[in-house]
Structures are given as C-alpha cells and as structure tokens.
Amino acid sequence: MPDPGYLMGVVAHYQSALLNYVSKMLGRGDQEVEDIVQETFVRLHLQLSKKGRSSINNLAVWLFKTAQNLTIDSFRKGAYRVKVLEGAAQSARLTNEQAAKELDVMGEVLRQEAREVALRELGELDEQYRQVVLLKIIQGMTLREVAEVVGISTSLANYRLNKGLEELTQRLKRAGVV
Amino acid sequence: MNREQAEKLLAALLFDELDAASKEELTDYLKTDDELRERLTDMRMAVKVTSDALKSEPKRVLNEDRLEHLSLLAGKSSHRTVAFSFRFLIKAAAVFAVIALPALLILMPSLQKAKVSSSRILAVHDSRSLYDMELGAGGIPSEESDGGTIYNRQEQSAESEPQIALGSEQPQYGMGGRGMSGMRGGNGSVVSDGLSFNTLRSAPPPPPPAVSVAPPAAPATRTPISPDASVRRTNPAPPPPRTAGPEVSAGTVIDSGVQVDAYADKLSTDRESSQLKYQYDFSYERLEDTYQNSKPIAVDGSVSTPLLGDLPEIDTLFKASEMEAKEDLSKLKGVEQKTKDNEPHEIAELSHDKAASETPAAAKPEPLYAGELNVPLQRSESAKSPQVLLDVSWGIVVDELGSDLPLGSRFKAVPVNPWVMTERDALSTFALDVDTASYTLCRRYISSGYLPPAGAVRMEEFINYFNYQYPQQSDRPFRVYAEAAASPFAGQGKNLTLLKIGVKARTLGRDQQKPAHLVFVIDSSASMGQPERLPLIQQALNLLMDNLTPSDRITLITCSDQAHLLLDAVPLSQQERIRQVINAIQPSGTTNLLAGLQLGYEKARRAYSARQINRIVLCSDGVANVGQTEAEAVLKAVAEDRKQGITMTCVGVGYGTYNDAFMESLANQGDGSYVFLDSLQQAQRVFVEQLAATLHTVAKDARIQVSFNPERVRRYRLIGYENRDIEDARFRDDTIDAGEVGSGQCSTALYELELLNAATENPVDDLGTVFVRYRNVETSRIEEISSTLENSILRTRTVEDSPYFYLAAAAAQFAEVLRQSEHTQGSQLKDIFAVAAKVCQVLPLDHDVSELAELIRRSENLPRAQ
User: Fold this and answer.
1) Three-state secondary-structure class, residue A96
2) Spatial CB neighbours of B38, under 8 Å, sequence gap ≥ 6
3) What are phi and psi of A171, to 5 degrees?
4) What DSSP string runs through B543-576?
5) Helix or strand or coil: residue A116?
C-alpha cells in the first residue's frame, strides 16, 4: 500500500500542470480532460502499489507520458476534435476574470490581449510541435525528458522544438504580438 | 559553424540546453549573422509571451468528486475532505503527508531510505506551494507563511496547541473571500506569521536534516541573486485583497485595496456596500490625522505599500527586475560575461541536488519563473550594449512586453477657456452638453488610486453629473434657471461672482414616448473580456430589457474581427431569446468597430421609421484596432444615415486602455450622447433612470448664447464646454451641429464674472440675457427662447439656502483642480472638500454629493495617471 499522502501530494502538485497540458493538447477543457488526468493518477496509484516507488524513475516524465498516451487513446477512440480556439477563449476568459480582480493597471489589457493571442496561436500549432513546446514551457522539461515523454529521439525533439518555436514566432509576429 | 547548424541549436540556446563549447561557438556565429540573431530575439519574445500566457492561466484542479475518488483510492479517509473547500483539501493532503513523515521514519526498515523519501515529499510540497503561490494566487508569493502553515499545523497535531495554527490559516485561505481580509490581516499579522514560522522551523519534531534544507533551497533556485526577492521572502506582503464574483464592481475591488489600515479602522464598518458610502465625519481637520497616515499609492508600486498585492505580478517582477538590473550593472561591471551567465544556473543546479536527489522534476524550478527572475542579468547586459541580447542564454529572456505598445488611455486636452472682457466680446456661445462620462471616468481613476490625466477632465461633464433639482416642467421645451452669488472659491481679495445657468428640457410623459428600434453595436474584442467591460454591458442590457416595452425592437451586432449580426430587429416580446443572445456574447479577437458601425447603420436604415426612435447604441472600450480607427473615418462612412435622424449613444466602458477622446468624438459628431459605465449603479442610472432621456430627444442642435451686459459685467469666464464652443455669429446658423437634449435632461453652465460697481446698491441694469436655440424634435422647427438674467438672482447665498449652487461650484472647482486649470486661484482640495462636506449635510439623501465629497477627500496626494 503506497503512502496515501504521497499520492495526494503528487496530485496537488501536478494536477494543474497536467490539466493545462491535456486541455491544450486536446484543444478543449471539459470532462474529458479531467477524465484523463484522473486516470493518470489512478494509473500512478496502481503502478505505485504494484511495483513501488522505485519503479518510476522520473515522476514528471512518467505522469506526462501517461497523460500523453491517454490523450492519444482518446483521440483514437474517435473523439471529435474541436479547434483549440474554443478552449483558449474559455480559459482566457477565466484568466481575465482573475486578472481583473487585481488592480487593473494600464497596459495589463494589452498584455492580456497578447496572452490571448499567444494561447490562440499555440492552439493552432501543429500537434507534434505544440506538444514539445508545451512540455518545455509548462513543465520546463529538458529535451531528453521531452523526448522520453513523446517517445522520440532527443534530436527529433530538438528539431520539433526548433520548428515549433519558429512557427509560433511567425504566427505571433503576424498577429503583431512579437 | 554554419547557418544550418546554428539554426538547429537556437531553441536549445534559448532554453540553455547547450554545453559550454557549442554555446560559445553559436554565440560567436550569431555575432556574424544579423538575421538569425533577429530571429532568436523574436523567438525569445514569443516564448516569453507564450509562457506568460500559460502562466496566467487559471490554476486548475480536478473537481471535488474526482479528488475524493483519488484520495479514497489512496486509502485515505475522506470524511474531512467533504466538509472543506477545495483548496483546503489540497493543503490538507499536503499536511497529511508531512504528518506521515514521522510514521514513515519509524516504520521504514532502513533509515537512510526513509530520509530520502521524506526529502522527496517535502520537496514536492515545497515546490507545490510555490507553484500555488505563483501560478494560482497571482499575488505576492508569501512562501514563508505558506511554509509556516504547514509547520504550524504539524505542530498542532503533534503537540495539540491549537492557538499556533489559527493565525496563519485565515489570511491564507481567506484570500478568496472579501477584500476585507487583506485589510484585517494587514502587514502586521502576516509578518508575525513569518516569525512564527521561523521559530517553529527549528523546533518541529524530528525533521531529518534533508528536510530542513528543502524549504530554503527551493526558493533559492528561483531567486538566484535577487535582493528584492529575498526581501520578499523574509517579509512577506499580505495576501492580496480580492473580491469574488464579477457582479461586484471593479471599482469596489480597488477601493478596498486602496484602503490603509488606519483609515480602514475608522470607516470600515459600513463599507459593505459597493457604493462609496461612508459615514461622514464632516470635520476635515479630524479626518486629516488619518489622512496623513494613509499612504498614497505610489505610481511605481513600491514594495512597502499594501496595494502592491493588487498589482499584477508581472508588473512587480518587471519593476523588481529593473531595480536589480541597475544594481547588477554596477556590481558586475568588469566581470567576465560568461561567469555571469553561468552563475544563477549553477546555484540552481546546486540546490536541486540538495533538495531532491531522487525526483528532479519535483523540485525543479518552473522554468517560467526561473526565466523571469533571471531577467536582471539579461537586462544589465543589454543596458551595456545593444549587441548583448544574444549573450544571454540562460532561461527565457524577458523583455518588457508592451514597453513599445501604446499604453494608457488616450485623452485629448483642450485649453481652458480664458477670461473675456465684456467690452470686447459680450457674447458667449456654446452647444449644450448633457454628457457625464468624464466624471464617471475620473471617479474610476480616483477610486483606483490615481488622479485622472488632465485631458480626461471635462469640467462641464463634472457639473452636469449632478442633479440640481430644477423643477420638472412639461409645457415648454426648455426653461432657464439662473442663480448667482459671490464665488466660494475666489482667491483672497478677488471679488468674483459665480453665475449658474441651468437649462432644463421638458419631461415627456409615457404616452408621448415612441417605440424604439435600438441597434446595439457591441465591441466583443478580447480587450472587452474584463468584468467591468463586456460583462458589465451585458448586465446593463439586461437591466434595460426590464425597462423597454414589448413594441420596442432590438438589433444586436457584435464586432470583433468582423461584425456579426446576432439579432435582427427582434421585438421585445421575445425577451427570453434576446436575453439569451446577450448573455452568450464572448469576448475574442480584435476590434473592428467600423464594420460594426456600418452594419449597425445599415440595419437601422432598413428598419427606419420616422414614427419611432432610431438609435444606435455603441458599447466599447474605444480601443479600435482593426479597420479604420479614426472617429472621422468611421463617421464619414455613416454620415448620410446620421442626417436622417439615426442617432447614436456611445457607452464607454473599461479603464486603462480606454480611449476617451475617440468615444467622445464619436458621440459628438454622431449626434449622440456619451456615457461611461464604471459600475452597475452607473448602468442603472444610465440605462434605467435616464432611459427616457437618452432615448427620447426633446431638442436637437441645442445651443446657448449668453449676452452679458457690459455695463454690469467687466469680464467673464465660462467654466468648461471648451470643445463645445460655437462662434458667436453662427448661433443663428441652423446648419451647425450642436447638442442633443433628451426628455427631462438638464444642462448647467457656470460662469465666473467680475462685476462692475459690485458695491452699487440696487443696480438697475440686468446682468445679461440667455438665449437658447434648438430644433424642436416634435415639430421639427427651430425655436429660440430667451431669459433675462435679472438682478434678483444675485444675492448673498449660503450653503443652507442654496445647496445646489454650492454643489455646482464645488464640482466645477474640483474639476478645475483635476484639470490643472490656471484658474484654480490656488484653491486647495481641502477647501473644496469643506464646501462639499457642508453640502452633504444639507443634502444627506443625495449619494452623488457624498460621493463627490469622498472623491475630493481621496484625491489629495494621489499621483497622477499618465
């Protein structure tokens, strides 16, 4: 029996990042995202109880990889794919509310618009690029960890990261944010 | 290294994943390749914006059921979790884990193993709490007090000392509650929080050595050589006061943030309401003490003010980094570039190893913050030479986004009206103005702790905001009311007279009201997403729906990238449908106001009927950034329609990037009125109470001409109406475009006069004559009325017998001071406050008056917004 506090600690620490990541990958933020994240933790629990903590080398990589695979499964199940725009707008609205609760200092709005554009453009990014960019930025993984999560070689991860960033930059440039 | 190779390494350089050798090589190469270097800069910016965007995402948590499921799964009893809030659940889980440590220590066969795993758990918690703080709370990270909570709670369960724990918990989790909590806690309590933590930290029952290292280590990874950050750590700021729910006006939020404890103690008892309703203690002197103590909000958001918690975190970081940049520059001058680059990184690495040898990911700093906090280095270098941008490879470059973007609202300042010698020009002519937007906007500024930019103050709109209770009348389209007395704010030895001329339009009865076709053009761009923008408009429209008749029709157009027609002349009988559509508007994209207006005018034209009110209601923050953005261009495009009697009301919302000049000019030229919404109360006032007025026009192109008698008046000065000026000779030129006045509306003008022979007893001559010329909407005829300014209006007045006279004087003088007009005659805000406070006593029921007094009181010592 793994230590209950451990699992909940992991949940507390990783849920937000995982939810964000999965929703960005899936292109929406709904029950399915929560399903996937919950299932990720359930699997972690199973893994811990069966094989113990030592079986997991890098917790973050393990979690993101599992979440990643579950996301792909959900794609395969024929789940419809909605453009990210919707999800981005949704979260942008939430962010807005949050941001506006704080003092609305001048310029915040413009920054806010830049953020929204960034989220939107990120959502438009090709999936394989989006994936590495997100892992890099949300979780701050090293290239090797990213490669491990995605299941590709480090050099390919590097290639995709470069490509993805370049495309993102181009898009943001076109949108006038950069 | 050739270009192809360099291109492949850009991202790695950006995230500092290169070994020293290739980094050097790449850096060298980049010095020779301008284009690639530029690309790197852009890329860096893109990463910065994106990470900023991702970072500002709301912190997400699984829903309660799921969490409970997981905790059940983990074998943890869930009876506690149900009762408590969500956040608490997470914290509780963390606390549990800490409590479980001693147990682990005992149970685990190998002590060594136990140490390692416990260090891992703590590391998890610690970075989690940071994560919480930085990502979720968005305020000032009070890491220590957070840590303190955990330890306190541990202490509590271990030794049953409940009193230790209670202090720290409330301010922590209570943040989501009312703005009050911030005030209540204040600096003091939080600091003591930190203290209790410090003392307890050495005490906690058996913390393994690794454990005690963990908490300080993790912050260190984030804040390598940041003096500011370390200050923040040891001296945590109070949690930011927050207000929940968009239904509370943003003004209130700021309101509570601005308050300082000393003042709060005095007034806090009845600040429940979102209005500026305070118990007045009318002696200015008495208030002055508290006043002195209350710190003005520094524009730079200096760390010590409680307001800091309210500033968006980003700004704080920028500010901090600027300071650091300066310090670093002096500190690091002459030190080799490379060392600088590596230094923070090494520290980070080091603490990693200490904090979590087994689970690097758990203790790994979020790169976003690491990147942000390393700004100083990069900035200090870039301060040295423009080339250096590429020397910085650690983390993500943060440059001040928006530094090159147009910040702030745009206002157009018009010179203040000068004194005019009556002998030279006895006529003063201007268009009537019933707008009040300037006052509302300035109120918004002041309640957020800034004086409005001088250009935002239109004095006539300050004067017109108040209800001077001119008698209701319905027989004549206009009536003129005049009062005069010695000017309450004239300087020493100056013998000036203040003349107040009120023009009140006829009040239309309900049966005289025509049905309306209202075309709402709603700006639904992303900038409208804040609660005081689009959601406020939505609420206001819902209010309006309650007050329209079933025969009225609504057309609804939103404009973001393009204009969208959501409702096309739908009668109010389908109210449910209209409401649904209104409430479903979501902000996104850019603002193409022109497209929206064009579509709006087209729809208005199609549904046009002379027997109804044809009106366009434009709701926007005025930040038009796509299509033609100049008011003239927009209006030119719809000029034909305007001539046929399709009028426009401009409803301005938002604050910050609000473009006041644009909206005002749209309304002025679009034959319309202009209102600014800053709160639901204002929406109520505009959309419900003044509904009849804003919808039912009594007179068009109304202008006023005052002809002063040179025998009596030596010189005069019109207060406000600067941009409403009309040439004297064109007063009877009926093609000019002047003001529109709705049912029951009134417009008040104040003149400051210097009289001749003021001392003469019983003068015979009148002061002058007032002419009002307008097109009667009912008959479509031009009419003109005149009214003599008789001597009887001039007498000695006191606040008690003429409160409205003094109210107008105070409002005007306040505007003059805010406007930085040269005619303030050295009057101080406290003098104005004294008058306003007296008026308050005479008119205790008028909230607008008490609000004015409060605004004046607050304006003292405020910094001016740019």
Assistant:
1) helix
2) none
3) -65, -45
4) HHHHTS-TT-EEEEEEESSSEEEEEEEEEGGGHH
5) helix
Q: Residue B284: in which H helix or E strand, if any?
A: helix B284-293
pLDDT confidence of residue B78: 37
Decide if B115 contacts B135 (C-beta within 8 A): no
- What value, to the nearest 5°, has the Cα angle with vertex B814 and ends B812 and B817? 110
| Confidence band of B502 (pLDDT split at 50, 70, 90) | very high
pLDDT at B248 over 50: no
Token pair 């690309």 is found at B39
d(CA B122, CA B216): 11
Measured CA to CA, the distance from residue B447 to residue B429 in angstroms comes to: 35
Residues 576-605 of B with CB under 8 A from A: 586-588
CB contact under 8 A, B46 and A118: yes
ipTM: 0.74
CB B518 within 8 A of CB B615: yes
If we measure between CA atoms, which residue out of A55, A32, A83, A89 comes closest to residue B585?
A89
- When mean pLDDT is compared over A53-62, B96-105, B301-310, the highest value belongs to A53-62
Residue-wise pLDDT for A26-77, tens only, equals 776 677 788 888 888 888 888 888 887 788 888 888 888 888 888 877 766 6
Count Cβ neighbours within 10 Å for each residue of B759-785 and write b for 16 or more, e otherwise: eeeebeebbbbbbbbbbbbeeeeeeee
Query: For chain A, what percentages of helix, strand and coil (3-state, to nearest 5) are there?
Result: 80, 0, 20
The Cα B745–Cα B742 span in angstroms is 5
A118 → closest Cβ in B50, B301, B366: B50
DSSP state of B655: S
Cα torsion angle, B796, B799, B803, B807, sign: positive
In what side-by-side order are the strands of the sheet with B553-559?
A: B563-571, B553-559, B516-523, B613-620, B647-653, B673-677
For the record, the structure tokens of B325 come out as: 């940049």
Asked if B17 lies within 8 A of A142 by C-beta distance, the reply is: yes
B771/B785 Cα distance (integer angstroms):
6
Instruction: Judge: B61–A19 Cβ closer than 8 Å, yes or no.
Output: yes
> In the predicted model, what is the mean pLDDT of chain B?
66
What distance in Å separates the CA atoms of residue B737 and residue B433, rounded to the nearest whole number? 12
* Encoded amino acid at B604, one letter: A
What gap in Å lies between CA B2 and CA B7, rounded to an integer?
Answer: 9
H helix or E strand, kind and range, residue B144: helix B143-159
Give the confidence band of B706 by pLDDT, cuts at 50, 70, 90: very high
Say which amino acid occupies B662: F
Tens digit of pLDDT for each residue in A110-148?
A: 677 777 778 888 888 888 888 888 888 877 788 888 888
CA distance B395 to B549: 61
Nearest chain A residue (CA) to B108: A3
In which element (H, E) is residue B706 found? strand B697-708
**CA distance to partner chain A, nearest, from residue B436 (Å):** 22
Mapped onto helix, strand or coil, the DSSP state of residue B415 is: coil
Bridge-partner residues for B497, per DSSP? B486, B753
Q: What is the pLDDT of residue A133?
A: 86
Q: Are B408 and B866 in contact (CB under 8 A)?
A: yes
Find out whether B648 and B625 touch, Cβ atoms under 8 Å.
Answer: no
**B205 contact A CB<8A:** no
Which chain A positions have a beta carbon within 8 Å of B75's beta carbon?
A: 1, 4
Q: Which of residues 87-116 of A touch B (CB under 8 A)?
A: 89, 91-116
Window 620-639 of B: residues touching A by CB (8 A cutoff) are 623
Interchain proximity A96–B135, CB inside 8 Å: no
For residues B341 and B804, give the distance between their C-alpha atoms in angstroms, rounded to a whole number.
67
Q: Are strands B553-559 and B420-421 parallel, antiparallel or unpaired?
A: unpaired
The closest of B45, B14, B39, B34 to B403, measured between CA atoms, is B45
Helix (H, G, I), strand (E, B) or coil at B84: coil
